[in-house]
Each structure stands twice: as structure tokens, then as C-alpha cells.
Write a structure and sequence with these properties.
The structure holds two protein chains of two kinds. By secondary structure, chain A is mainly α. Chain A has one domain (2-315). Chain A has helices at 2-36, 53-62, 74-91, 109-130, 134-165, 170-176, 181-184, 186-200, 211-214, 224-249, 260-281, 287-315. Chain B is mainly α. Chain B has a single domain (6-116), classed as Methane Monooxygenase Hydroxylase, Chain G, domain 1, CATH 1.20.58.1610. Chain B has three helices and no strands. Chain B has helices at residues 6-32, 64-86, 94-116. Chain B is flat, with a radius of gyration of 26 Å. Chain B starts with 5 loop residues before the first helix and ends in a 7-residue tail after the last helix. The chains are: A mainly alpha, B mainly alpha.
């Protein structure tokens, strides 16, 4: 009985984090972007700095009419937001926030995370195909291309950490982490983070939803709650990517003075801020530049990191 | 139920919760929303102009070569994971290191070949 309660409590915390953290990141994006671009942004709702704008948006989305175009492939169209969103919730179960503080310690955790995160992109491909809209199809195909190109550097960079730690369990990896892993795994960390950004389709890798070329890509035909769920999936994706980078490359809960979970949260939000910062600072890449960056840039760098990890691990440690 | 599969039990429960969140959101939306469909509203939006022809237009997929590359390399990369956990175990050391370089050489050679064949360029 106690065991069941324990698992239930962990799941409740995970669901709460899944519903709250993406909204905080969204709010942070509103404010950080407004400041970086020297504009106010929404300032009225709720009084202080428009803090209630997100809530107002949520209420609006919840009561909007659900329009499914007559030409669309109804079932796939209706299901796509779930395919985009749910994997990011499931991934959270293996991300540790402190020693022993993890939903379920799966011994192949790293593998599990990479496999499940790949599923999220399928939602975007499904949406693009099912919309029966030429631009959406293009957007979906671009999503597929992006997944194809960036999954490989992501996997290679992640396996470099697995080599360094000698385990696939995320908790084990964070436990093994020492400060000198920072310079040792630096290339891998950058490759992982950049490839992760590309997989989330965040700017500067947002060709699938490039609004000046293909309207809103796969999400063009979506309205109301389904569109909101796609948005939630995007921010949940940011949280998951930041948390993964934290656990794999920044030592997870390790840090002086403050308790472990606080350190995890601090690192996650710093990385989420970087994600937003990158969005504001860089122009969108062209589709062919994107492919080139992956195959000519990130994959060789990831291979270099693998070689470096292997040599140092065998010769020094 | 303890052991290997019990941790995956929690994963399945969380998956069901996720599906529940999605269904709950849609249900709340159904309770709250108006529903007044008109033919104009149900027309594909596309770019704001009435759509011409079918939505599932034929298009050339320019990156299909990348797809082949991806399949080849991703299958290779999967083998890294079981190997990564044991390669530095006592008694392996240099052997696995040499193995690793053979592995990396294969992947690097593949990419170099693709690059020389100019399939990494946008056609």
C-alpha cells in the first residue's frame, strides 16, 4: 500500500510540474522577448505587468469553437495534438530532480527518453498531413526532415554521456557527474542542446512553421483548444529539453549550499531562458542550411566528442 | 509486481494520465464552446484565399537521400548504447577503444562519401 501511495505521489508531482512549468516558461518568454525587443507586450490583464494574460488566453482557448475543416482527415487531425503533447509528459517520469527523487528509475532511461521524445515530432507530421492544406503538408514534410537530420547528433551526443558515466540510467548519470565533465563534454552539450532545439522546431530552426513562407505550417488549420495543446506541447518540450540537458551535461541536482531540487530548477530555467534568448537573437535558417548544419556540422562534432570521451575514459580514468 | 517491469507500470499509468488530460481538455472545451458550423467556416483556411485544387498536392521530397543516411546511421547509433555502458569495464580498455575508432571511422567515412557524392547539398 505504501508503495502504491509513493508512486501515486510521484505521479501527482510530475503531472503538476507538467501543467505548471510550461506556463512559467511561456510567461518568461512573453516578458523576456518584450524586454529584449524594447516593447511592452501585454500589460493590462491582472494589473501587475499583465501577469494574468496567460490565464486569459487559456480561458479564451477553452471556450473557442472547435473547427475541423471539412476537407481534413478528421481522426488524424483530431488526434495529432495528443501525439505531440503526451510524449513530453511521459518523458518527465525518468528525469531526476534529486537523489532518489525520480518518477521511476528505468535502467535504460536515456534510451527511453530519446525514443519517446522522437514520438512528439510525429504529432506535427500528422497535423501537417491531415490538414489537407498545401502549406501544412510542406510544413509536416519539413518537420520530418528536421527530425531525420537532428535525431542522429542528438543520439550521438547523448551516448557520449552514457559512455562517460557507464550507465544509461539518468539518475546514475547525474550521480556520476563531476565538475570536470563540463569541459570534457562541452562539445556534446552544445550539440545536444542545438539538436534538441531543432527537434522542438524552435527558432532559429522553425522552418516547419515559418509564418512568412507557409503561414503556420502544420498548425495553420488548428483553432481553439487543439491549437492551445500544440502550444503547450512546445513549451513542455522546452522544459523537457532543458531538464535533459541539465541532467546529462550540467550535473542535475549537484551544486553547493541549496538543496538538490532547487539546483535542478535553477539550471532548467537558466537553459529555458537561453532557449528564449536564442529565439530573439537569431534569424531563421533556410531549409537547406538547416540540413547542412546537421550533417556537415553537428554530426562530425558529435563523432569528435565520442572519440574524445572514449580516449579520456580509457586512458585517464 | 516488483523488478524490471514494475517501473514500466508507472510509465503506462502516466501515459494514461496524459491521455486523460487531453480528453479532459477536449471535454471541457465541448461543454464551454459554441458550435455553429457554416460551409465557409469549414473551408480549408490555407493562406486566407479560397483553396485551389486538392490539399494533398504532389510535391517533390528533396531530402529523401537524408532519409537513407538517417536510417543507416541511426541503426548504427543504437548499437552504441549497450556498448557505452561496458566499454570501460576492467579488462576491456584498449580493445574497445580500438573498436570505437573502427566504428567512428565507418560513420565518418559514410558521411564523407555522401558529402563527396554531393548528396548533402540541396538539389
Amino acid at each position: 500500500m505504501a508503495e502504491v501511495l509513493d508512486v501515486a505521489l510521484r505521479l501527482v508531482v510530475i503531472v503538476a510540474a507538467f501543467l505548471v512549468l510550461p506556463l512559467i516558461v511561456g510567461q518568461m518568454e512573453h516578458k523576456a522577448m518584450a524586454h529584449m525587443q524594447s516593447r511592452l507586450g501585454p500589460m493590462y490583464a491582472g494589473g501587475f505587468h499583465g501577469w494574468a494574460q496567460l490565464i486569459a488566453d487559456g480561458v479564451k482557448f477553452a471556450q473557442k469553437e472547435d473547427v475541423i475543416p471539412a476537407a481534413a482527415d478528421r481522426r488524424v487531425f483530431a488526434l495529432a495534438p495528443a501525439v505531440a503533447l503526451v510524449p513530453y509528459l511521459v518523458v518527465l517520469i525518468v528525469i531526476p530532480v534529486g537523489p532518489g527523487l525520480v518518477g521511476a528509475d528505468i535502467d535504460a532511461g536515456l534510451f527511453f527518453v530519446l525514443a519517446v521524445m522522437g514520438v512528439g515530432v510525429l504529432g506535427s507530421i500528422m497535423a501537417g498531413w491531415a490538414s489537407a492544406n498545401k502549406y501544412s503538408v510542406l510544413g509536416g514534410i519539413r518537420s520530418a526532415a528536421q527530425l531525420m537530420s537532428y535525431e542522429l547528433p542528438l543520439v550521438l551526443a547523448a551516448s557520449s554521456v552514457a559512455m562517460a558515466a557507464g550507465t544509461l540510467s539518468l539518475e546514475g548519470i547525474a550521480e556520476q557527474w563531476r565538475w570536470w565533465w563540463l569541459p570534457w563534454q562541452a562539445i556534446g552539450a552544445v550539440v545536444f542542446f542545438v539538436a534538441g532545439l531543432a527537434e522542438l522546431r524552435r527558432p532559429p530552426f522553425d522552418m516547419p512553421i515559418a509564418d512568412s513562407e507557409i503561414i503556420m505550417g502544420p498548425m495553420t488549420e488548428y483553432t481553439g483548444i487543439r491549437f492551445a495543446l500544440f502550444m503547450l506541447a512546445e513549451y513542455a518540450g522546452i522544459v523537457v529539453l532543458s531538464a535533459l540537458t541539465t541532467v546529462l551535461f550540467l550535473g542535475g541536482w549537484q551544486g553547493p549550499l541549496l538543496p538538490g531540487p532547487v539546483w535542478t530548477l535553477i539550471k532548467v530555467f537558466v537553459l529555458a531562458f537561453v532557449v528564449i534568448w536564442v529565439r530573439v537573437s537569431f534569424p531563421r535558417l533556410r531549409e537547406d542550411q538547416l540540413q547542412k548544419l546537421a550533417w556537415v556540422g553537428l554530426v562530425p562534432l558529435a563523432l569528435l566528442q565520442l572519440a574524445l570521451t572514449g580516449v579520456i575514459k580509457v586512458l585517464m580514468v | 509486481m516488483t523488478g524490471y517491469f514494475s517501473s514500466y507500470g508507472a510509465v503506462v499509468v502516466l501515459l494514461l494520465i496524459g491521455v486523460g488530460i487531453f480528453a479532459g481538455g477536449l471535454f471541457a472545451n465541448r461543454m464551454l464552446r459554441p458550435s455553429r458550423p457554416t460551409p465557409d467556416k469549414l473551408m480549408t483556411y490555407e493562406c486566407g484565399v479560397d483553396p485551389v485544387g486538392e490539399g494533398w498536392a504532389q510535391s517533390q521530397i528533396r531530402y529523401y537521400v537524408f532519409t537513407y543516411l538517417y536510417v543507416v546511421f541511426a541503426v548504427d547509433a543504437v548499437f552504441l548504447f549497450p556498448w557505452a555502458t561496458v566499454f570501460a569495464a576492467p579488462g576491456f580498455g584498449m580493445t574497445t577503444l580500438v573498436e570505437m575508432f573502427a566504428f567512428l571511422a565507418f560513420i565518418a567515412l559514410g558521411i564523407l562519401y555522401a558529402w563527396r557524392k554531393r548528396v548533402l547539398a540541396w538539389t
